[in-house]
Amino acid sequence: MDDLSQKSGSSRAATRAQILSTFNRLLLAGEKKRPAVSEIVTEAGVARSTFYDHFDGVEALFDESLSGLFRRIAHCLVGAGEREEMVWLMAHILENRERGRKLLSGPDAERIGNVLSRLLHEELGMRPDARLHAILISGTVMAALGAWMTGKLATTPETLSDRLLYTSRAILGADDDWRS
Prior knowledge:
single chain; Arc Repressor Mutant, subunit A; 2 domains; 9 helices; about 0% strand; HTH_TetR; DNA-binding; Homeodomain-like_sf; TetR/AcrR family transcriptional regulator
């Protein structure tokens, strides 16, 4: 790779990161469900065409925004992450429960569940029944997080983490137990 293509690649990644960072900031600070493309490009200092060069629209940007957090959760749930990281992630969700309540128990919950399911499926790779396991684990996690955010489930980040990790491992190990 020559210097020009390296610079343009890093510039492209920096622009994408700037758009994502701006979106996250506007999303957390705003009253609206999602910031408009016009608001994002103005704040990020990029052209509208640049935005669409990186993302198909605000919903694709929303999915990417969520993927950072939920990729880490998926990593923990399939046994690749540490318990302490899962506890930190649940504490982070609790600290942001005002926004979390809207996202995890409202109309976006299904969309977020689909993002989590896709990320779990990626983490599980070629494992037998990976798609089914991803759907089962995602459904369990989303139900628990939704109940936790709305106050239907009162527990600590530590306890919730432990139960989600245990349940995920039980789902993943069920095939082995059943077939033996």
